[in-house]
Design brief:
Blueprint lengths: L1 H23 L13 H12 L6 H15 L5 H15 L1 H5 L3 H26 L8 H32 L1
């Protein structure tokens, strides 16, 4: 029982670590605008999958870690992720029962809203310029959502399969 619990939490943490590494991974200069929001995608999956365990507190902590890694003003990503994930948690039953392609459209809107909100907070604190190519990153996130969702669901099922075997 204790081993399964630790294994499940290590799996969730490892997904978040991989997402943070992918956020930092350099892309070629011409394709920088198409960089997906990996951390947002992984956080969205876990909030939709197990909202009673991964929720607003996780979003806040991951936002703080994201701020520390990027070197941005501490709390900007934490604030934006917490507020936006609140709306996902509030409506998770509806969102998780939508088709995968409709979820992809909502992910496009969600990632764009997150990036726009980060810009607005940074603009209110100091001079910031919005890069309209952020739309391409939101589109890339929406296109990748079905594959991210299915891959992570498969990994979660494997963990539950291990639980049933023992």
């Amino acid at each position: 029982m204790q081993t399964r619990f630790i294994l499940q939490w290590l799996t969730i943490l490892s997904f978040f670590v991989v997402a943070l590494v992918l956020e930092l991974a350099p892309w070629p200069l011409g394709f920088q605008a198409f960089k997906p929001a990996w951390l947002v995608l992984v956080l969205l999956y876990w909030v939709l999958a197990i909202p009673n365990k991964v929720s607003i507190g996780w979003a806040f902590l991951l936002g703080l870690v994201w701020d520390l890694i990027l070197g941005s003003t501490l709390g900007i990503h934490a604030l934006v992720l917490s507020v936006t994930i609140y709306f996902v948690v509030k409506n998770y039953l509806v969102l998780r029962n939508l088709s995968l392609w409709f979820q992809s459209l909502l992910v496009i809107a969600f990632v764009f809203i997150v990036r726009l909100a980060i810009f607005l907070v940074e603009f209110s604190l100091h001079t910031a310029f919005f890069n309209w190519q952020e739309i391409f990153g939101a589109l890339a996130s929406g296109i990748l959502w079905p594959w991210v969702f299915l891959l992570m669901r498969k990994m979660r099922e494997k963990l539950n399969y291990i639980k049933k075997e023992r």
